[in-house]
Amino acid sequence: SDILQLISVLPKAELHLHIEGTLEPELMFELAARNNVLDKIPYESLEEVRAAYNFHSLQSFLDLYYAGCAVLITEQDFYELTWAYLERAAADKVVHTEIFFDPQTHSARGVPFATALQGITRALKNAEAKLGISSHVIMCFLRHLGPESAMATLQEALPFKEHIKGVGLDSSELGFPPSLFQEVFQLAAKEGFKAVAHAGEEGPAEYVWEAVQHLKVDRIDHGVKSIEDASLCAHLSKAQTPLTVCPLSNVKLKVYDGELVEKLQVLLKQGMCITINSDDPAYFGGYVNANYAFLAESLGLDAESIYQLHKNSFVASFLSDEVREKYI
Ligand code: ES4
Ligand code: ZN
């Protein structure tokens, strides 16, 4: 249709993408074989992997996502993982991407911070030259490991500051409110990092308030539960705090029902800065254009809304104003 055509040709920024969540089953097996760790992945075949990607909650997904990470060991592994994502992003007309990585997932397995970061940044640099994609890296703290481990990770990152644009907060949400990480985010801000946090994915609207007030984030990742709090929605609209929404992720993890999707459209029309992203595309069944297409089809979005979403992706990005201007 015309809408799908428009989605496929519009240049866009992707702002919510876990690089570890772009590990396709084929590459998972290839790296497992190369690194002699086939025993570390709980599957015998590609079919078995795909059959396992049937989630009922955030945690049921995270368990498999962390298990898959066991095959990522060398700098070259991280390079190939990131490069494979960038080629797919280019096919979807992504011209700028801000990717998350989870250093603690790798350091806990004995893979140094620098190994993961260097593999990722080498691919990003190559993509700038060969695919015309600009990028930033955002390092995320795993909230289930608590604030002390997050603080240690931040300290470990300081020597690599020039390669890291911002800090984020991800993993299991319920029981790990943003306020626990206030000190970590305070130091990160002092060190010049931008800040984002997953909030209001499975957790309540209250966690979104905490991310705004305690962590002083520049964007909220997901944030769909904000819909349940009218005064929060009013605040986010007024402050133009962006939400990086991931429709296929929310459907796969059963975060919301149809009604919430429709409310999303109301918020978009009211001027909230909503962006569309793919989160963990290898696990959730589609890259960024598939996420736009899903929303367009389920809501019957018009061309004007699609155009607004593409524009929001640049407005919400950490690009310099000078570069941003070129796209909006
Ligand atoms: C994640 Cl969908 C989602 N939510 C929270 N943490 C994550 N890490 C990777 N994907
Ligand atoms: Zn996410």
Automatic annotation (TrEMBL):
Q: Which Gene3D superfamilies match?
A: Metal-dependent hydrolases
Q: Mind telling me which SUPFAM superfamilies this protein's record contains?
A: Metallo-dependent hydrolases (SSF51556)
Task: Give the UniProt keywords, A-Z.
Answer: Hydrolase, Metal-binding, Nucleotide metabolism, Zinc
Q: What is this protein called?
A: Adenosine deaminase domain-containing protein
The record's HAMAP family line, in alphabetical order, gives: Adenine_deaminase (MF_01962)
Domain Adenosine deaminase, by residue range, is 11-328
Superkingdom classification of source: Eukaryota
Q: Which cofactor does it need?
A: Zn(2+)
